[in-house]
Design brief:
Elements (H helix, E strand, L loop, with lengths): L7 E10 L5 E3 L3 H17 L5 E3 L7 E6 L8 E5 L3 E6 L2 H14 L16 E9 L5 E7 L7 H13 L4 E5 L1 E2 L2 E2 L8 H4 L3 E2 L21 E2 L4 H13 L3 E8 L4 H6 L29 H17 L4 E5 L6 H5 L1 H10 L4 H18 L3 E5 L12 E4 L4 H8 L4 E3 L2 H4 L21 H5 L10 H5 L1 E8 L7 H8 L2 H10 L7 H6 L1 H10 L12 E6 L6 E6 L7 E5 L9 E2 L4 E3 L3 E9 L2 E2 L4 E5 L9 E4 L30 E4 L3 E23 L9 E7 L6 E7 L8 E23 L11 E9 L1
Parallel strand pairs: 2-3, 2-4, 4-6, 8-9, 8-19, 9-14, 14-15, 15-16, 16-17, 17-18, 18-19
Antiparallel strand pairs: 1-7, 5-6, 5-7, 10-11, 12-13, 20-21, 21-24, 22-23, 22-25, 25-26, 25-27, 28-30, 29-34, 30-33, 30-34, 31-32, 31-33
Helix pairs in contact: 1-2, 3-5
Bound molecules: acetamide and zinc ion (ZN).
């Protein structure tokens, strides 16, 4: 396994074997440090540790050479039966070459116990390698949930394995301040703790008062940070701290309310807050004094060239009514609070650059103009990055649709609760930080890309690992390997080996890439459906079973789409080595009386959510928890009445309306469904109704509102579905329907 794939690789014959007689040739302190990374693993897993020498013996050695004619992250590796020669431009390149050696060794090298009977050999080959981009990052959100020092160290070791070189720590957010600041001890005494509501969905947590007992939380001491930074440096990784401003700082304002506009005490919130109006007051000079002192301590701890100041998602309503903010605007000739925000960030940029560092922030910092030297992290798609690079700023691309790893990597029905969205492994692999429409000059400003792991829905290490692996490996390859050498088939073909290595490392990785998904279409005659089974992984062995049949490795292999003409349950899985390689899929396709029949809408569905248009509610195909999946029809505020003509009088005894709720996205269950039936299309009789009270919820839920009645002859159905209209929390309600099932 080699991930990321090297720029150039030539296979040789034979192999080199590490044994107790192997020597490592290191001639300076950096090379000796590097040797330590390998000898530590060998002594733990192999039970021997190669001696260091300054001169090469005749054979059986690994030699490091620093050669400053090579770029700092580039390396060459020559492996023969006799020796391994690793040559690099600087320490970073040597680390990368060493990680290549690590990946070529058996997965047992990752183990924590001495393993007998392993041959510690690696194949002869030549590699010439260097990265496509200089910024290959991962952001960990340690605010929404805290992740301790040991997990950060373990993550650094895994990042190094994949040649990632930037760890961005999101240390500050509303729900927790995670960094000890000596000059402002309340930032962690108060700001690092919140009321424990971990038993509730993030978006359904209750508002806290400042006097409530706050027990959930933790933070990094400055000693922890020094250890993290040093551990990262030894692995060629830079740690970039993010100190959010002006918004996402309720934890700081809970500790020091004097830096807000209103100065009133607030609590550290336990869960989601939207919109974010409790933000720093740029009208008060003291706010800048505070932030500068905080940043001085931060710069002391983190030697990184870049300092991240956040800058996203500020709602400035308090600034509009704050006397201090209004005075600042008059004095500075600022026309709007948007300009005041730009003033805020420019002022911080002057401070940061005066200390020899480069300010970076989320793409909102572009709004209203940005100091020329500042850099931008583009998260709202790639537009921010495009604009910033055109304006001459360096950019790091982190578009949500490709690299927000807090989103689902498989069907939400089978996955742990996540933020939403859908970013499967192959989507990450398709990421390119360079946007086609960028000029060459713009592309030169793209430093690289980064995966962001927001932790609202990730409360522990196992959950974090599950979201990171293997997607982080895909990200690493697209940021390192030349675009022309990127191949999904090769990458996905290495998953078994990658999983074996992650297993040996004790990582809770996800097998979702091996899940089977079903795509289905109603036939033109509207009497059958075609069901196509797919796996992301090229050439996967999909087996399926129908109805009550058991699903085993001996089940029918899937080759062409299945044709179904009656209610059928399909089970399917990718099989490898006689076992399901991912979660088996179970899906029931329900045929019913209304399939393919004409539906009259009053009013018609919203243009944004037409589903499959006129056939959408009677096409057998159901929607998933992803409301963008093309199966959902939506109505905004409006109620809808559906009239279905069954073509002939038949016996009917139940009607069910498939619907979803996703309150975080403004989608609410209907308030009720009323069903009336008719044989002549003129006189209708009410046969039943279903009512449901509104209840606040943070979950995404699918449900069918079912109405049963005594069997009766029916040709026409009139189904009235009531939208919640305006939810108590404000705004307008979407109502989503996917199928009307008539039996
Ligand atoms: C962000 O996701 N708010 C940067
Ligand atoms: Zn103010």
């Amino acid at each position: 396994m080699l991930i990321p794939h090297p720029a150039e690789l030539t296979a040789g014959t034979g192999h080199f074997t590490f044994d107790p007689e192997t020597r490592i040739v290191a001639t300076n302190a950096a090379e000796r440090k590097l040797a330590g990374l390998l000898t530590e693993k060998l002594s733990r897993a192999a039970g021997f540790s190669p001696r260091l020498e300054t001169r090469a013996p005749r054979r059986n050695f690994l030699r490091f050479t620093t050669d400053d004619s090579l770029p700092p992250e580039a390396y060459t590796l020559e492996i023969s039966e006799k020796s391994i020669e690793l040559r690099a431009g600087a320490y970073a390149g040597l680390v990368h070459g060493l990680q290549t050696i690590r990946q070529l060794l058996p997965p047992a090298i990752e183990g924590n116990r001495v393993q007998a009977g392993v041959s510690w050999q690696i194949p002869s080959l030549r590699i010439r390698d260097e990265p496509r981009f200089p910024w290959r990052g991962l952001m960990l959100d340690v605010s929404r949930h805290f992740f301790g020092k040991d997990y950060v160290l373990a993550t650094l070791d895994r990042m190094a394995l994949f040649k990632l070189n930037t760890l961005h720590l999101h240390l500050v957010d509303d729900q927790g301040w995670r960094l000890e600041i000596k000059g402002y001890p309340r930032l962690t005494e108060v700001g690092a703790y919140r009321v424990d509501q971990e038993d509730r969905h993030w978006d359904a947590r209750l508002k806290n008062g400042p006097a409530d007992e706050a027990t959930y939380g933790d933070f990094y001491t400055q000693e922890d940070i020094r250890e993290i930074v040093a551990y990262a440096r030894d692995r060629g990784i830079t740690v970039v701290p993010e100190i959010e401003m002006p918004a996402h700082v309720m934890s700081a304002l809970a500790a020091y309310p004097e830096f807000s506009c209103h100065g009133e005490p607030i609590a550290v919130p336990s869960g989601g807050v939207w919109p974010i109006t409790d933000i720093y007051c740029p009208g008060k000079e003291a706010t800048f004094g505070f932030l500068e002192e905080v940043l001085l301590e931060v710069m002391e701890l983190f030697p990184s060239r870049y300092l991240h100041v956040g800058g996203d998602e500020a709602t400035r309503t308090n600034w509009e009514v704050c006397e201090d903010c209004q005075r600042r605007m008059r004095e500075e000739g600022l026309e709007s609070t948007a300009e005041l925000q730009s003033y805020f960030i420019r002022r911080m940029e002057r401070f940061v650059s005066a200390h020899g560092r480069v300010l970076i922030g989320w793409d909102e910092i572009l709004e209203g103009g940005l100091a020329p030297g500042a850099a931008v992290m583009s998260w709202r798609g790639t537009e921010g990055g495009w604009e910033a690079s055109r304006a001459g700023h360096d950019v790091v691309m982190t578009p949500g649709d490709y690299v927000y790893l807090n989103q689902y990597q498989g069907d939400p029905d089978y996955e742990p609760l996540a933020f939403g969205g859908y970013v499967p492994l192959s989507k990450v692999y398709s990421f390119d930080p360079l946007v086609d429409s960028m000029s060459t000059e713009q592309q030169r400003h793209v430093l690289g890309g980064q995966a962001n792991l927001w932790s609202e829905f990730i409360a522990d290490v196992a959950g974090s690992e599950y979201m990171l692996y293997p997607r982080l490996a895909a990200l690493a390859e697209v940021l390192w390997t030349p675009r022309a050498a990127q191949r999904w088939e090769r990458f996905s073909g290495q998953l078994p080996e990658l999983f074996g290595r992650l297993e040996a490392m004790g990582v809770n990785y996800s097998r979702s890439a091996y899940a089977v998904t079903a795509a289905s279409e109603l036939s033109a005659e509207k009497d059958r459906i075609r069901v196509a089974l797919q796996s992301e992984v090229a050439g996967a062995d999909i087996r399926y079973a129908l109805g009550e049949e058991a699903l085993t490795a001996a089940s029918r292999p899937y080759t062409t789409p299945l044709e179904l003409d009656r209610t059928t349950t399909v089970r399917a899985a990718v099989f490898a080595d006689g076992q399901p390689a991912g979660d088996p899929l179970t899906k029931t396709f329900t045929f019913h009386r209304a399939v393919g029949k004409p539906v009259a809408y009053a009013p018609v569905y919203h243009a944004q959510y037409p589903g499959r248009e006129d056939i959408g509610l009677v096409n057998i195909l159901r929607g998933s928890k992803n409301f963008h999946d093309g199966q959902w029809q939506g109505w905004l505020v409006d109620d809808v009445t559906l009239t279905i003509d069954l073509d002939e009088v038949v016996t009917v005894s139940s009607v069910a309306v498939g619907t979803m709720e996703n309150q975080g996205s403004g989608i609410f269950f209907p308030q009720g469904v009323k069903v009336a039936v008719s044989t002549d299309g003129v006189t209708y009789q009410r046969v039943g109704e279903y009512a449901r009270d509104y209840a606040r919820s943070g979950e995404v839920r699918l449900d069918a509102f079912a109405i049963e009645f005594a069997p009766r002859p029916v040709r026409y159905l009139r189904i009235a579905v009531d939208n919640l209209g305006h939810p108590p929390q404000g705004g307008s309600a979407w109502m989503f329907l996917d199928e009307v099932i008539v039996k």
